[in-house]
Amino acid sequence: DGTEKTLITNEYVHLIYAADDWVYYRTSSSGSANPPKLYRMRVDGTEKTLLSEGYKASVTELYVVDGWVYYYYGSMLYRVRTDGTGETQLGSVYTYRSLYEYVFISDGWIYSFVRETPQSLALTLQKMRADGTEKTALDDSIGNNGTIFAVVGDWVYYSVPFGEKLDDEEGTMLTYSDKIYKIRTDGTDKQEIVI
To answer: 2, 57, 70, 105: which sits with the fewest CB atoms below 10 Å from its CB?
Structure first.
């Protein structure tokens, strides 16, 4: 209702994520003397804990799942326990817009789009265990862009843009839209969903 407004930190905060009774946030950098830091604290401002620091803490998106904070910096996906221990680099993911468009965590698996190299245009839909092991390609025919939007049961749902050239009396026009697909979490039975 807008009452009981309370200041819980004086820091300049760039990214905020709330889960349970905790607030996860990143501070902004003011140069190499004060690099960004990733923290968590109680919603009342107590129990502040440093989770990560340095430029990998310049996260743009993060998740909190099953006692772990998953976050992205550069082209790398990291995780750290919510108490600040066990920080691990899990591998590269493709992000162009937002982590949430490319990474989905479900039932102990991370689903993401990856590139073989930073210069590569082709994406692969991949799954890996939440600890970064058992990387498995599910679909290597994505093209250069896509969005994962759900994992339901044994199915991963995602969209891939495609272009189509149309000729009419006014000339040739290229149109873009998305095709929606589903594929089983083991990489079989890919199907286009027609709407």
So the answer is: 2
| Residue of 117, 32, 16, 20 whose CA lies nearest to 71 | 16
Amino acid code (one letter) for 192: E
| Cα–chain center distance at 160 | 17
Instruction: Please give the Cα distance from 138 to 158 (Å, whole number).
Output: 12
Banded pLDDT at 185 (limits 50, 70, 90): very high
Residue 158, both tokens: 């995602």
Between 185 and 98, where is the model more confident? Answer: 185
What are the CA-CA distances from residue 61 to residues 25, 46, 136, 173 (Å)? 10, 23, 24, 36
What is the torsion angle, in degrees rounded to the nearest 10, for the CA atoms of residue 184, residue 187, residue 190 and residue 193? Answer: 50
**Nearest alpha-carbon partner for 16 in 38, 44, 47, 46:** 38
CA atoms within 13 A on the CB side of 114: 21
- Asked whether residue 115 carries a pLDDT value surpassing 90, the answer given is no
CA distance 131 to 142: 25
